[in-house]
Design a protein that fits this description.
Layout: H1 5-15, E1 25-28, H2 37-45, E2 54-58, H3 69-77, E3 82-83, H4 92-103, E4 110-116, H5 117-125, E5 132-140, H6 149-154, E6 165-171, E7 177-183, H7 185-192, H8 198-207, E8 211-212, H9 213-216, E9 230-235, H10 243-253, E10 256-260, H11 266-269, H12 271-285
Parallel strand pairs: 1-10, 2-3, 2-4, 4-5, 5-9, 9-10
Antiparallel strand pairs: 6-7, 7-8
Helix pairs in contact: 2-12, 3-12, 4-5
């Protein structure tokens, strides 16, 4: 495996990067994996008779859509249609275009949620879709125009991703090589999902989907959060995207913020809190 000094630098930057976002009205949530007060409130708000919006869930790097399984079950039980597409994880513009094509197929209102790098994708994919009524950032990036996930992650200390990264090269369609970043299996749990059982994180490490350096360093276009209301769930034990970076992004976006004691994979360790934030966004914007 060839690792040039430039790719090592990029991977270190990637380390300090891969997921971020935060907000404005900071409400502290409980760390219990069971139902939270916010969840109970959202359940009460769900008792309207009208059709519910479709929830579209976009995963980030080192994960796939299966990470939303428990959150999806809770949303479906509450009557929400859910789609969790496979994020290509190749380049930001292309990934956003793919998710945008999914949105094109949904006729009614949508609540669009992203985890980690998925937040950068939804920030771009939602543009031009009047049916997207709310954006939900789950330990995610919310870049402004010209910013990349790597750049945002590097602005704040606290990420432990860099030293844990394992680079692998792959051929590009037009020739040359790209570089994917994986988390080394022996460091995966501590960095990515410290509050999940070891038996679970071993499987996650083996099945992780890498993120390309090219995608993570791509500049964002104009952000949808400037025109679409947003909600932010910040895992304050995140060792991938520093919580300070998430608070910065959430405040800038004017997001409704909830903080919870959680690792980066908040949708897996706290699916009730995750579903509650999504349902609160749905209730506030699609009544």
């Amino acid at each position: 495996m060839r690792t040039t000094s430039s790719s090592r630098r990029l991977l270190t930057a990637l380390a300090v990067s891969v997921l971020v976002v935060t907000g404005t009205a900071s409400a502290q949530a409980t760390s219990s994996p069971g139902a939270t007060p916010a969840d109970s409130a959202a359940q009460g708000k769900d008792r309207s008779n009208g059709p519910k919006p479709t929830v579209v869930l976009v995963h980030g790097v080192f994960a796939d859509a299966s990470g939303f399984a428990d959150t999806i079950a809770l949303l479906q039980k509450a009557g929400y249609p859910v789609i969790a597409p496979a994020n290509p994880l190749r380049d930001l513009a292309g990934d956003a275009a793919y998710v945008s094509s999914i949105l094109d197929t949904i006729p009614g209102p949508v609540v669009l949620a992203g985890h980690s790098y998925g937040g950068a994708v939804i920030t771009n994919a939602a543009r031009g879709h009047d049916n997207v009524k709310a954006l939900v950032y789950l330990g995610a990036f919310a870049p402004d125009k010209g910013e990349s996930p790597l750049q945002l992650a590097g602005q704040f200390p606290g990420s432990e991703l860099g030293p844990a990264l394992l680079p692998r090269h792959y051929p590009l369609p037009g020739g040359g090589e790209g570089t994917d970043g994986y988390i080394a299996p022996d460091k995966f749990r501590a960095v990515f999902a410290a509050d999940l059982p070891t038996s679970t994180t071993r499987i996650m490490a083996a099945t992780q989907r890498p993120g390309s350096i090219e995608g993570l360093s791509s500049p964002s276009a104009g952000p949808a959060w400037k025109t679409i209301p947003s909600w932010y769930l910040i895992p304050n034990q995140d060792k991938v995207i520093p919580p300070a970076a998430q608070r910065f992004m959430a405040e800038r976006a004017g997001s409704h913020v909830t903080e919870i004691r959680s690792s980066h994979v908040v949708m897996m360790s706290h699916p009730h809190a995750t579903a509650a934030v999504i349902r609160a966004a749905a209730h506030a914007t699609t009544r």
